[in-house]
Amino acid sequence: MGRLEDFRFLTGQGRFVDDVARGTAAEAVVLRAPHAHAVIRSIDSGRAKSMPGVLAVLVESDLGLAPIPCITPLDATDRLVIPPRRVLARGRVRHVGEAVAFVVAETLRQALDAAEAIEVDYEPLPVVTDGAEALASPAPQLWDEAPGNLAFRFERGDREAVEAAIDGAAHVITLDLMNQRVAAVPLEPRAGLAQHDADSGKSLLTFTGQGLHPIRSQLATVFGEPVDHFDLTAPDVGGGFGCKNYLYPEWPLLVLAARRLRRPVHWAAQRSEEIAAGTHGRDFRARARLALDGSGRFRALDVRAVANLGAGLSTSGPHSSTLAPATALGGVYAIPHVYLETRGAFTNCAPIDAYRGAGKPEANYIVERLVDKAARELGVDPADFRQRNVIRSFPYRTSLGQTIDTGNFAANIEGAMLRADRGGFARRRAASEQAGKLRGFGIACFLETSRGPDREGAEVRVGADGTVELRLGTDSTGQGHETVLPRLAAERLGIAVEAVRYVQADTRRTRVGEGHGGARTLHMGGAALCLAIDAVLGRAREEAARLLQANAADLEYAGGFFAVRGTQRGISLFEIAGDVDVGAFELVEGAEITFPSGCHAAEVEVDRETGEVTLARYSGVDDYGRRLDTQLTLGQVVGGLAQGAGQALREAIAYDPGTGQLMSGSLMDYTLPRAGDLPDFSIAFLETPTKRNPLGVKGAGQAGAIAAPATIMNALIDALAPLGIDDVPMPATGHAVWLAMRRAGGAN
Q1: pLDDT per residue over 76-123, tens digit each?
Q2: What are the DSSP calls for 501-523, one per residue?
Q3: 598-619 pLDDT, tens digit each
Q4: Distance from C-alpha of 359 to C-alpha of 195, rounded to nearest angstrom
Q5: DSSP strand E in 419-576: where?
Q6: Are 413 and 386 in contact (CB under 8 A)?
Q7: CA 238 to CA 351: how far, in whole Å?
Q8: pLDDT digits over 328-370, tens only?
Q9: Between vectors from CA 267 to CA 264 and to CA 273, what angle results, nearest 5°?
Q10: Are residues 257 and 350 in the same domain?
Q11: Minimal CA–CA distance to 56: which of 99, 118, 120, 119?
Q12: Which of 589, 624, 649 is the last residue of a domain?
């Protein structure tokens, strides 16, 4: 059966922020910094304020708002420095696109004209856009609070044990790797509509968001007011991938403007704004070493990384380069000793925050590129080499403290090699060579750590009208929550799915909710929903026993009815709800991480004349525990694969190192993969259910983006190996590959 929400999307009945009736709403525009680093000498908004239709021009001194909080609970080795991230720039701008002024007018055109009339006197300062360069001396300093631009130093693992293992190793494989800066680029850019009710004192923000309750709390912090002064709601949201999880400057600006003007205020980002001023992902540079003994078994992994955090700390910015990769570093392999050190650097770039996978793609890329290089240097088959080192017995406690409860990593590899038709690769390579092209075969395993925030709630309300309402906080941005969760509830309640009403993304109707980040919807939200349904049925059983004057133990439940065993006496769940409230709210806290896993294989072709890389084949075998809807699972995996392939071969946020100007500020320059760039993905599933939630699920939302970069790059290196090329940085564009081949003497 298809997704229940698709009919309205396919027939143009989706309701996004810009479809919400705006009535008398004014339009807002953000004036953004044209410099990457500059002192603001003065701002003259006098002419702008007098222009037709202009209602307000706000600069930082007009606001009276606290800084946007960073909420990452990071136990850094050296202290975590959190400079004040102002809603509008105060005194200095630190990246191109930073918000400087907020203009509100009757129409969008009037607001744009007024923004252009604001005169800002800037004194440009030196810039630094590379994380490692920012930490070197001398480098332009961004914050007085962070000498040397160091935001933190974080470490996990036993450094001395790792260094001892490396000193005594038979082989040490070393790689310098860069996980480049990328943008999420959801189909729908950010947009918001703020309204204020003077009578109640409440502000309502309708916006493109996920994880509304945490954003609401942060918004209250910025205003210095109680949380219940604010309500947040999101209609349909056109993609998120992590970037809509955060409090952006535009959200408090909209609320403040609506309060002061006593009318609704609307803002929508242009694509260039979204790329310049939205959060970015990755930007993680690492030197990694893998130690092996004489039999080719892994003994230690050492990773020293620099995370380019940008000009300030976003909501959970440090998490993606510290706590998140630490949960997955080592992957599916039995490595006795692992050590990670990350130094966070402030630079003149937009802030970094979680993007699909959030630290796990970076960790997996390091491990799987190292493993492949080790196999080449030792002259062993990369699949057999992985089989030699995978974890085989469970539960398994990793060197960095995670307990992997279940999996079958060896079967993943075996199945992936069969699905990839590895035996036929020699024939396909020969055909490519006849056509004047190089062909490579690459594999990579992956281990995801799935949970995200460890708190989630669900509420179930039963109506006397024959409906059941589900209220959850794991907000959808297109994944299919409205299909899977109502079907799950209908199945467990024994009623028709048409009787189920699904409520999400509205703080007026949901009690808690941390969003869907971390591939956690079913693991956390689904678990809470199961508990709430069990509580509803337990209460209803007691009430049915009372109404039927029977023992609760003598009641049978099926198809929405309680019946006294062996009699014709019974009562429906909805009749009971007409007599007494049997609804329930349940909270799941402290849930353990689950561990999705898999093995993927890719084949690429390389044009000898241009360096252009074609992703010719892609397949894999994945384990997400129990699957409630295989088609939706596959959709999530394929979506992640497309983004991972984009990172491997196409996508990069590029800043000019001398000026800090954004050189990939539109979709003319930030090259997303198109349908024609991608093959038919062939993914099969194994199933080792977890006992860490009542559904046995593990989470599939991030896996494709974790697996694909290493898989594709390993295939590319295999194709280029005959030319003596053992590394190409991502993205492996045609130009980058051509340059590598030319240096190696293999390009025309």
Answers
A1: 898 899 999 999 999 999 999 999 999 999 999 999 999 999 999 999
A2: EEE-SBTTT-S----STTT-III
A3: 999 999 999 999 999 999 999 9
A4: 37
A5: 437-447, 455-462, 468-472, 500-503, 555-558, 561-564, 570-572
A6: yes
A7: 22
A8: 999 999 999 999 999 999 999 999 999 999 999 999 999 999 9
A9: 170
A10: no
A11: 118
A12: 589
Mean pLDDT value across the chain: 96
The enclosing domain of 519 has a CATH number of 3.30.365.10
CB count in 10 Å sphere of residue 53: 15
* Burial (CB count <10 Å: 0-12, 13-18, 19+), residue 98: buried
- By C-alpha distance, which of 88, 489, 436 is closest to 254? 88
Residue 215's φ and ψ, nearest 5 degrees, are: -65, -40
Q: What is the rounded distance in angstroms from the CA atom of residue 461 to the CA atom of residue 493?
A: 12
SS3 638: helix
Distance between CA 527 and CA 695 in Å, rounded? 7
Contact 642, 673 (CB under 8 A): yes
Quick check: 518 and 360 in contact, CB under 8 A? no
Q: Where are the beta strands (DSSP E) in 631-744?
A: 681-686
Are 320 and 298 in a shared domain?
Answer: yes
- Under DSSP, the state recorded for 52 is T
Give 288's strand partners: 175, 303
Range of the domain at 509: 455-589
Whether the CB-CB separation of 547 and 579 falls below 8 Å is answered with yes
Number of folded domains that form the chain: 3
Q: What is the pTM of this model?
A: 0.97
- Residue 130: its H or E element: none
Asked if 522 and 543 sit in the same domain, the reply is: yes
Q: Which of 236, 268, 300 is the last residue of a domain?
A: 268
Residues counted in the chain: 748
Cis peptide before 453 (omega within 30 of 0): no
Same domain, 209 and 251: yes
Separation between Cα atoms, residue 360 and residue 366, nearest integer Å: 10
Residue carrying the six token digits 């001194």: 61
What are the tokens at 52?
């037709």
Closest to 363 (Cα-Cα) out of 322, 398, 313: 322
Phi, psi of 358 (to 5 degrees): 45, 75
Q: In this structure, are 215 and 308 located in the same domain?
A: no
Q: Which of 640, 707, 655 is nearest to 352 (CA)?
A: 655
Look at residue 185 and tell me if it is in a domain.
Answer: no
Within 10 angstroms of residue 12's Cβ, the number of other Cβ atoms is 7
